[in-house]
Amino acid sequence: EYFCNILVNHPLIIHDEAANSTVAGLFHMLCCFYYEKKQYDHALEHLQTSLKVYLRFLSSDDIKLTTTYNNMGSIYHRQGLYEQAFHFHKKAYDIQVHYSNFDPYAIAAYACNIACVLVEQGKYEDAIPYLQRDLQIRKRLCPNRDDIQLSTKYHNLAGAQFRLQKYNKALENYQKCLEIELKLHSSNH
Predict the structure, then answer these.
(1) Which segments carry the TPR repeats (predicted)?
(2) N or C: the chain end with fewer CB closer than 10 Å?
(3) What is the pTM for the complete model shown?
(4) Is residue 36 part of a domain?
């Protein structure tokens, strides 16, 4: 950590893209270390430094920054700062969906993260399109329709629909979830 702090503003590094990329990556790893220890303030501090270094040579809407933005959203989410969490998850999502060579796994993850933030705020109607997008992508990427993650996606969507008193839709998705669960688990469990 001490070494990274020395490097971040070193005159020989500050104008070298490869060196900046390495330093930004090191700060990102420090963020992950503190995140795992649930020290979110330290994690966020290191991630913000990582972003600052990346922005020396990348535009703020570069596809390479979506992971950084998403991770910032996750930290804010853990801290209960839902508006900031939404902002950064949405920024990651928007960049990814507008990129010509987008990553469907990333889009699904970011959509799910946005939905989780919205659900925690009680904004179920706003969460549903993101839950649906996550489900659609998972169905397309999952050749085996009996996937536990697919079951979870149906369950999450049904939960939001239930809270909005859209009981028929909720029941339909809960049933799909149950069908998958029954196929995956024998009666011995």
Answers:
(1) 66-99, 151-184
(2) C
(3) 0.89
(4) yes
The count of domains in the chain is 1
CA distances from 134 to 54, 138, 183 (A): 28, 6, 22
Provide the token pair at 15: 């104008």
Residue 39 lies in a domain: yes
Q: Give the Cβ contact number of residue 131 at 10 Å.
A: 26
Structure tokens at 59: 């535009």
Taking the CA atoms of residue 84, residue 109, residue 55 and residue 38 in that order, the dihedral angle to the nearest 10 degrees is 60
Write out pLDDT tens, residues 30-52: 999 999 999 999 999 999 999 99
Is the Cβ–Cβ distance between 79 and 92 less than 8 Å?
Answer: no
pLDDT of residue 185: 81
Q: 3-state DSSP helix/strand/coil percent for the chain, to nearest 5?
A: 75, 0, 25
Contact predicate 147/135, CB 8 Å: no
Residue type at 156 in one-letter notation:
N
Q: Which amino acid is at 151?
A: S
Q: Does a structural domain hold residue 132?
A: no
- Note down the domain range covering 39: 1-58
**11 in any annotated domain:** yes
Q: Give phi and psi for 8, each to the nearest 5.
A: -55, -35
